[in-house]
Specification:
There is one protein chain. By secondary structure, this protein is an alpha/beta fold. Helix content is about 45%, strand content about 10%. It is elongated and about 85 Å long. The protein has two domains: about 200 residues, no CATH class; about 250 residues, Alkaline Phosphatase, subunit A, CATH 3.40.720. Helix 3 runs antiparallel to helix 4, helix 3 runs antiparallel to helix 8 and helix 4 packs antiparallel against helix 7. It has 21 helices and 15 strands. The longest helix is centred in the N-terminal third of the chain and has 28 residues. The termini are far apart. The protein has a seven-stranded mixed beta sheet, with helices on both faces. A two-stranded antiparallel ribbon has the order 1-15. A two-stranded antiparallel ribbon has the order 4-13. Strand 11 and strand 12 form a beta hairpin.
Length: about 550
């Protein structure tokens, strides 16, 4: 029978049934939390969604088969692979597919993406993606006339219209929960969000990554006093795991020893690195992504004539126009001090080397920056890799492990205790790097310098079965939203500022950063807002 081929109706029935049976876990879990399946209304709601899903599947696939059988099979296979992948990560990490997540995928580098290729995922992909894909390839579909074939999408569309119009209450319920449902219903979640992302690319929502920026109004550099302002953007550091905010472990002993102070914790503008870096570097703060893109902080300062340096060990920053931009790989070529050499050894396996450096590599060759800052104003941006998952033990040297045992694997494969240990080690290494930065600056007598540190977003460590970050803003737990805000100031800087009220400032860190950097450099006017400047004395 199979050698002779199967009818398209049989293929569709088996394919859709498989997809509903094995690629709906995240949707079922969400429905289970908001729908009473033991009641008639709850059962009807579930059946309503299933009917919509089946009809949408038939509509999509038959339109593809209308082009050709081979093309239809190609799309069917692609969706099997994508569904298997999405189901695994949504179930494992407790995430949903939103537009921000789709955008992040397009701006993730290979080294970051490759960390998700763990054995559990590959086994899941093999069973629920590759095996059924092979069957789709091998099983022939009997020829069908285009006239008969067109009846499938037309019939599906008519039935969709009839079902939705005859069930207004259920249709309204689906509409009311559209954002939550649409983020979990496969494959429509990633199809719809990708289309939305592409539309936003055309209309400027993501223009900061590939196009131009609207120029901000020029500010005024009030004086020519030299000095250095350092902004450090961390990665996935949550306030809940900082000693400054009550965490019982001595995570921040290094920065506390060298004189950092903590401002009140605050919530990030998103749980996605690409959006939050945009917020941090924007004069608009958390309103940045709701409005037209304007030049980010480093580009603005560079245009004003302030020497600007950017060093990154991460991805997903806005496109910057600055005089000096270096990655950790480039900095490794000029690393000749203990601050950057510690723990950073290029590991090679025969002919293959992995160029992955810890964040302290960003402290390489600081002398030229320090010398420049003795005669003029300088801004330095450091973008840490911090505590980015999925393997937290990769974010700090294996020999630097204050807390053991650790888990050298993907978060979903870790015992909770070992997972927390690995995460805390990475956070403590960030703290150690920040302390080393302060020591370098403090070694320059008379230099006016200040360090501002904040994270892009927080991180979930298994609370309520949530892992990592990326939850929609309205659903995100505090662990993914609440971030630290640390400040270090040299004695010379303290003497030039009234810092008596700095600890009482309650402006959210990601809304304060742009204006506080301007305030520290004594740039006023233009986009500067004194009420968002933590150094501004009321």
């Amino acid at each position: 029978m199979l050698k002779k081929g199967v009818r398209l109706s049989v293929f569709l029935a088996v394919y859709v049934s498989f997809s509903l049976a094995f690629h709906q876990g995240p949707l079922i879990n969400w429905l289970d939390a908001i729908v009473d399946f033991s009641s008639l209304s709850g059962l009807l709601a579930f059946l309503f969604i299933e009917c919509l899903s089946i009809l949408l599947w038939v509509l999509l696939l038959t339109l593809m088969f209308f082009i050709s059988i081979k093309f239809g099979k190609l799309i069917a296979i692609t969706l099997l692979i994508l569904n298997a992948t999405a189901t695994f990560w949504m179930s494992s990490l407790g995430i949903v597919i939103n537009q921000e997540l789709i955008a992040s995928l397009f701006f993730t580098d290979y080294s970051e993406a490759s960390e998700f290729l763990n054995p559990d995922y590959l086994i899941h992909l093999f069973i629920f993606g590759l095996i059924p894909s092979v069957l789709v390839v091998l099983i022939p579909i009997k020829p069908i006339t285009r006239i008969r074939l067109v009846l499938y999408p037309v019939g599906s569309a008519v039935m969709l219209a009839a079902i939705t119009s005859l069930n207004p209450n259920l249709t309204d319920w689906v509409d009311d929960n559209g954002a939550y449902l649409g983020s979990r219903l496969l494959p429509w979640s990633y199809i719809g969000k990708t289309i939305g992302y592409a539309q936003d690319m055309r209309h400027g929502y993501y223009s900061r990554y590939y196009g131009g920026f609207a120029q901000l109004p020029d500010g005024t550099i009030v004086d020519d006093e030299p000095g250095l302002v350092v902004l450090v953007i961390g990665e996935s550091s949550r306030a809940a795991s900082y000693s400054y905010y009550g965490y019982e472990r001595p995570i921040n002993q290094a920065t506390q020893k060298v004189g950092y102070i903590a401002l009140p914790k605050s919530k990030s503008c998103s749980t996605n690195t690409m959006i939050t870096t945009g917020c941090i570097l924007s004069a608009k703060g958390r309103a940045d992504w709701r409005e037209d893109a304007t030049e980010p902080l480093p580009s603005y300062l560079y245009r004003l004539g302030i020497k600007t340096f950017v060093r990154t060990n991460n991805t997903e920053m806005p496109r910057l126009n600055v005089g000096n931009y270096q990655t950790s790989t480039q900095l490794a070529n000029v690393c000749d001090t203990k601050a950057c050499m510690d723990y950073n050894v290029l590991k090679c396996d025969q002919a293959f080397c992995v160029e992955r450096y810890f964040d302290n590599m960003l402290l390489a060759n600081m002398d030229p920056i320090l010398e420049t800052a003795k005669s003029e104003k300088v801004f330095l941006l450091l973008h840490f890799r911090g505590s980015h998952g999925p393997n937290y033990s990769d974010r700090s040297p294996k020999v630097f492990a204050p807390f053991t045992p650790i888990c050298d694997a993907h978060v979903t494969q870790c015992d909770l205790g070992a997972l927390v240990n690995s995460y805390d080690n990475s956070t403590m290494f960030t703290d150690k790097t920040l302390a080393a930065l302060a020591q370098i600056l403090n070694g320059e007598d008379g230099l006016s310098s200040v360090v501002l540190y904040l994270s892009d977003h927080g991180q979930s460590l298994g609370e309520n079965d949530n892992y990592m970050h990326g939850a929609p803003l309205k659903e995100a737990p505090d662990e993914q939203l609440e971030i630290p805000f640390l400040i270090w100031m040299s004695d010379t800087f303290k003497q030039s500022q009234d810092i008596s009220s700095i600890k009482t400032k309650t402006i959210a860190a990601q809304d304060a950063t742009f204006h506080s950097v301007l305030g520290a450099l004594n740039v006023v006017g233009g986009p500067y807002l004194a009420e968002r400047d933590i150094f501004y004395a009321d």
